[in-house]
Description:
With about 400 residues, the chain is an all-alpha fold. The protein has two domains: about 35-120, no CATH class; about 150-170 and about 175-400, no CATH class. Helices cover about 70% and strands about 0% of the residues. It has helices at about 10-30, 35-50, 70-95, 120-160, 165-170, 175-195, 205-220, 225-240, 250-265, 270-275, 275-280, 290-295, 300-315, 325-335, 350-365, 375-395, 395-400; strands at about 285, 340.
Amino acid sequence: MNLPAFKIGWPQRLAALLLVLFLSQCLWVISRQQLSTDDYRFARCGREMWERPSPLAGYFTSCGNLNGDGTFGYRVAGLPLSAQRLALLAIDKMRSPENRLYASSALSGSTWEARHELSSVKYLLHLPFVFFAVWLGAGLWWVARRLFGNEGGFFALGLYCFCPDIVRYSVVPNNDVLAMWGLYGLVYTAIGVAHAMQGPRRKWRPRIALLIVALGLTAAAHLLAAMIGLLAAAILMMYLAERRRSHVMQILIFSALGAMAVLFASYTFRLPAFTYVFTGGSARFWFSLDAARGFFASPANAAISVATAVAAILWLGIRRCRYFGNTIPLILALVLFPLVTTQAVSRPWLWALPFLFTFLGGVFADILETRYRKLFLVLTGLILVTQAGLCITLLTTIAHQS
């Protein structure tokens, strides 16, 4: 099979530079962090998921059955630590019996063996979440560039990379960054499946498989995010599939069953723990504008707030700005911002940010193609420079708060 050539031109290099700047901010914050009780909880329970079940009878881990909390974040946090521990025990196994540090083998050793030998725990624990945030940033740029061109893609990515809230939640273990990553990928994968349905069937399978994985991992991060993503996927696929709409429900049912299998695997195929997905109440929600009001009223997001106000006026006043590529991320952002979970502590407003930045990139890309290009080119540059300055000056505060 001939794979398409991937060319690294100036757009890819500039996007990589922005992502490197984002990564540098995260590394700077992590270097000044202290391990917290949440860090220890994610590390302990994540390692228990990978290495052995909890000794507490009737519970999945010593954190309980994770009512309202997804397993994905714990597994992401625990995987590097478990891998390093197993590597230490494997190296120890190669030593002569009289020189070994641990009596147990790598397979039968306790979860807590070699814990005092683990190094760089802070980086091993936090960097996987930074990796997913960088991955999301690359996906955001790819989507926005495909839809709106280079200018829209770079504006969306620039706002993402210099958003203080994105940096703050990317440098600590949590399920919200993973839910944000999964939900954004799920929505645009569903759109990709719908477009692929217009072509030969051989092109359906890879995208449907990707849809299953995206839905399953999103559910493992947060059930509410997966439910919203599945509903959005159903609506968008029905709208885009046109003459192939009779296949949409079959694909969605198959994807939901596959996602359930992925979610079941995240609980190590333990049925008692898996049942808490349906009884834990993680999908319970209500509505409140407090989170959205706090985000847009924060001085740290002043440039983003200005860009949002300008984009809203342009979307309402200029017809060319109101089309599918701009309107879908706007609708999803409006749906997510007012959501508040009532059973678990989570941040649906954070999940809305990639959709908001996609919308902003689209509207500003449209207006840059008009006769007002010079005026809005200056405005776009000022917004990015201002937001970058705000984010960089707040890094010390972010390090102390996280």
